[in-house]
Amino acid sequence: MDITPGRAMAAALLMLVAGCGDAATVKSGTVASKSTSKSTPGAATNWSAVIAATPEGGFRIGNPNARVKLLEFASMTCPHCKEFHAEAFETIKNKYVASGNVSYEFRNFVLNGPDYAASMLARCQGPQPFFGLLNAFFTDQESWTQ
């Protein structure tokens, strides 16, 4: 039996999904880092350390009760998304999210097979490591997409 590239990709993706475990764990929306129960902007909490999966399927960093909610739909294989991430994410996180005034949620906008695989790998690890993996995928985008 010949293995076509499409079948190989499908088999790889099935293995990725199988490795995720219980999807309810990722979608639970629980805070995955040590934080206080304070939820008011301006509190002494560093909100950039508060990371959670959202019921809508994204990952949020920051105060869940922030007045401003920034929602980004992005593809891990998109060079424009990579550029935005490189230029803006740290400023958004350190200046606005950390203060508790803004929450930032990332939702995957899957464009192709490699994007799906990277998205699944990052998502399956859960909320806490998600943003580090997102940064790694964007940083090395040229090497793993070729």
Protein model, in words:
Helices cover 46% and strands 14% of the residues. It has helices at 5-18, 23-26, 79-97, 113-124, 127-139, 141-145; strands at 51-53, 59-61, 68-74, 102-108. A 4-stranded mixed sheet has the order 1-2-4-3, with helices on one face. Helix 1 packs parallel to helix 4 (113-124) and helix 4 (113-124) packs antiparallel against helix 5 (127-139). The chain is globular. The two termini are 27 Å apart. Residues 1-19 and 22-39 have low confidence and may be disordered.
List keywords for this structure.
disordered N terminus; 46% helix
Element layout with pairings:
Layout: H1 5-18, H2 23-26, E1 51-53, E2 59-61, E3 68-74, H3 79-97, E4 102-108, H4 113-124, H5 127-139, H6 141-145
Helix pairs in contact: 1-4, 4-5
Name the beta content range: 5-15%
Give helix % range. Answer: 40-55%
Count of extended strands? 4
User: How many helices?
Assistant: 6
Shape: globular
Given the helix and strand composition, which structural class is it?
alpha+beta
The end-to-end span amounts to 27 Å
Q: What string, H for helix and E for strand, traces the elements in order?
A: HHEEEHEHHH
Oligomer state of the chains in this structure: single chain
Low-confidence stretches: 1-19, 22-39
Question: Could you give the order of strands across the largest sheet?
Answer: 1-2-4-3
Largest sheet: 4 strands, mixed
Rg from alpha-carbon coordinates: 16 Å
Let me know the average pLDDT: 80
Q: Can you summarize this structure?
A:
The chain is an alpha+beta fold. It contains six helices and four strands; from the N terminus they run H-H-E-E-E-H-E-H-H-H.
